[in-house]
C-alpha cells in the first residue's frame, strides 16, 4: 500500500495567516501540521508517499521533507493547480501509485487514540487482502460541514452524503480513506459536483453501491481534528500540548516512528538529532536514541 497526502488548497478559512504560508506547514504546537498525517501513514507501515501540493509550495515542502530518505522512505510531489476536489487530487497521484492499494489522507487532519495504529493496520490489511474501501466515522456536532454516513438499525451503511443541509446522522466521514486499486477508475467516472469539484464522497458511494464500503466508527477513545479553521487549529494545538506535557512523549514525531519501525538506525537518528540538540525536539530524539523514551 502507498499513501497520498493532500496538502494543497489555499487555506482560505485560516486567512490572513495563510495568505503567504501553506497551512500544512503551520505549526500545530511544536511541529509542522504535515508531520501529523505523515506520521499516521508511517504507523500503518507505508514507506512511499505522494504529496499533492500547490505548485508554488514545492520548494518549501522539499526543504522540510526532502525525498524521504532520511526517514527510510520515498517521497514524491505532484502539483495541483487548482482545488478541484479530493478525488482529483487522488487522480493526480495515480502515476506514482502504479496500481497499488492506496491510503488517502488529508494534510490538515490530526488523529490520536489508544490502539489507533492497530486499528489502521487491520483496516489496511483488509483492503489489501479483500479489496474494497475502508473509511472511518466520527460523531460531531456540526455534520453539515462534512461527508455524512447514515446507518440503519442493524448498523449497516445506508447512505453517504457530502455536506448535507439536513444531515441524516451526526457521523462525519473523517479525512482518512483506504482503497483498493479500483479507486482510480471510480474517481475518473464521477462528475463534478455543484461546487465544481470531484467529490471523494461520490467515490465512496460507488463502493457503497457495490457492497464494498466498510465504515468503522471511531469512538470516545479517539480524538480527531480537522484543523482547517481557526478554532479547530487552536484546539488541535492545545490537545497536542496537553498530551505531550502529561506524558513526556511526542505526537507526530516522524523520526521516532521511522526509528521504531526499524527504517533508520540509531546512528541515523542521532545524525538528525545532533544539529537540533539545543531544541526540545532535538533533545527528545537524542533521548530516544539512548533508550530513555518509553514505548
What's the quick description here?
InterPro entries: G1P_thy_trans_s, NTP_transferase_dom, Nucleotide-diphossugar_trans. It contains 11 helices and 13 strands. With 295 residues, it is of the alpha/beta class.
Write up this protein.
The chain is of the alpha/beta class. The chain has two domains: 2-134 and 174-264, Spore Coat Polysaccharide Biosynthesis Protein SpsA, Chain A (Alpha-Beta Complex); 265-295, no CATH class. It has helices spanning 35-44, 58-65, 86-92, 94-97, 116-130, 183-189, 200-209, 230-247, 254-260, 266-273, 280-289, and strands at 2-6, 27-28, 31-32, 48-53, 74-79, 102-106, 109-113, 133-139, 147-151, 157-162, 171-179, 213-217, 222-226. It has a seven-stranded mixed sheet with strand order 5-4-1-6-11-8-12, sandwiched between helices. Helix 10 (266-273) runs antiparallel to helix 11. It is globular and about 55 Å long.
Q: Strand content of the residues, in percent? A: 15-25%
What structural class is derived from the secondary structure elements? alpha/beta
- Distance between termini? 26 Å
Strand-and-helix sequence, N→C? EEEHEHEHHEEHEEEEHHEEHHHH
Number of strands: 13
Enzyme class: transferase
Catalytic activity: dTTP + alpha-D-glucose 1-phosphate + H(+) = dTDP-alpha-D-glucose + diphosphate
Family: Belongs to the glucose-1-phosphate thymidylyltransferase family.
GO molecular function: glucose-1-phosphate thymidylyltransferase activity; metal ion binding
Amino acid at each position: 500500500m502507498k499513501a497520498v497526502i493532500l496538502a494543497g488548497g489555499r487555506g482560505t478559512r485560516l486567512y490572513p495567516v495563510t495568505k503567504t504560508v501553506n497551512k500544512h506547514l503551520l505549526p500545530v504546537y511544536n511541529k509542522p501540521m504535515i508531520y501529523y498525517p505523515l506520521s499516521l501513514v508511517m504507523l500503518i507501515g507505508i514507506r512511499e508517499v505522494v504529496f499533492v501540493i500547490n505548485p508554488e509550495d514545492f520548494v518549501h515542502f522539499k526543504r522540510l521533507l526532502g525525498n524521504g530518505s532520511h526517514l527510510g522512505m520515498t517521497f514524491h510531489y505532484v502539483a495541483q493547480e487548482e482545488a478541484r476536489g479530493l478525488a482529483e487530487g487522488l487522480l493526480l497521484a495515480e502515476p506514482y501509485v502504479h496500481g497499488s492499494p492506496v491510503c488517502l489522507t488529508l494534510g490538515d487532519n490530526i488523529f490520536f487514540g489508544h490502539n489507533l495504529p492497530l486499528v489502521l493496520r487491520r483496516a489496511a490489511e483488509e483492503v489489501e487482502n479483500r479489496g474494497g474501501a475502508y473509511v472511518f466515522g466520527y460523531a460531531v456536532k456540526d455534520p453539515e460541514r462534512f461527508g455524512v454516513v447514515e446507518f440503519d438499525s442493524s448498523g449497516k451503511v445506508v447512505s453517504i452524503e457530502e455536506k448535507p443541509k439536513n444531515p441524516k446522522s451526526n457521523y462525519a466521514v473523517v479525512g482518512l480513506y483506504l482503497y483498493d486499486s479500483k479507486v482510480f477508475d471510480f474517481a475518473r467516472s464521477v462528475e463534478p459536483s455543484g461546487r465544481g469539484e470531484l467529490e471523494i464522497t461520490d467515490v465512496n458511494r460507488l463502493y457503497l453501491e457495490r457492497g464494498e464500503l466498510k465504515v468503522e466508527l471511531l469512538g470516545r477513545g479517539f480524538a480527531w481534528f480537522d484543523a482547517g479553521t481557526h478554532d479547530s487549529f487552536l484546539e488541535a494545538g492545545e490537545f497536542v500540548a496537553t498530551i505531550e506535557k502529561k506524558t513526556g512523549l511526542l505526537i507526530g514525531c516522524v523520526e521516532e516512528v521511522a526509528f521504531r519501525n526499524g527504517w533508520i538506525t540509531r546512528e541515523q537518528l542521532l545524525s538528525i538529532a545532533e544539529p537540533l540538540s539545543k531544541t526540545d525536539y532535538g533533545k527528545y530524539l537524542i533521548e530516544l536514541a539512548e533508550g530513555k523514551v518509553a514505548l
